[in-house]
Write a structure and sequence with these properties.
globular; two-stranded antiparallel sheet; two-stranded antiparallel ribbon; 6 helices; alpha+beta; 192 residues
Length: 192
């Protein structure tokens, strides 16, 4: 809950992960994890490391957890791929579908993914904290927001028509689908 990007980014993570899962886009399994005061007392190494190298204490309560899809002791997980390798991702259409979702949800960040062999090369979409306009919950006109840095993942796109099946899936989202995603967010995360 003490995310340096503030609680709204946690809410964005939960909601967007649920939306992507509903659209059958690969995302890591996520869960709400209750961290007790006793656990933190017995595991002093559990801290939040900030970008400047300092640390922040973790407070007891519900936290967002995202699971690695592979065991890093037995498989390699990549966050960047060279262009020729990126063209071999088996679920490349997930990038096109996710770009449509990122535009719909107002992602203000570049699209991030992790890659691994299982046994073929697959991608999972990660880091949805800056969807819904990030911490501000405002929508901005940012043409490159939501676009992955390796443009080879969009090689299948030739025209706007290539987005059509994905846009129709998004348009088919119902109010109850969105309420189901919202229901996964703990109420205490909405409080300052």
């Amino acid at each position: 809950m003490q995310n340096p990007q503030r609680r709204r980014t946690l809410i964005n993570e939960v909601i967007t992960s649920a939306i992507l899962r509903k659209l059958q886009i690969r995302v890591p399994a996520s869960a709400l994890i209750h961290v007790s005061a006793e656990f933190l007392r017995d595991n002093a190494e559990v801290r939040i490391r900030l970008s400047n190298g300092s640390h922040r204490a973790v407070l007891p309560g519900l936290h967002f957890g995202s699971r690695l899809s592979v065991d890093p002791a037995t498989k390699i997980l990549y966050d960047l791929l060279p262009r020729p390798v990126a063209r071999r991702i088996t679920n490349q259409s997930d990038f096109i579908r996710t770009l449509a979702v990122d535009k719909w949800t107002g992602n203000t960040d570049r699209r991030q993914a992790v890659f691994y062999y299982n046994p073929r090369l697959v991608a999972e979409m990660i880091d949805h904290g800056l969807t819904l306009g990030g911490d501000s919950w405002k929508f901005y006109d940012a043409p490159l927001a939501g676009v992955h840095s390796e443009l080879a993942v969009y090689d299948e796109v030739r025209s706007w028509d290539d987005f059509e099946p994905h846009i129709s899936l998004i348009e088919a989202f119902t109010r109850s689908d969105l309420e189901e995603a919202l229901a996964q967010v703990p109420l205490e995360w909405y409080c300052p």
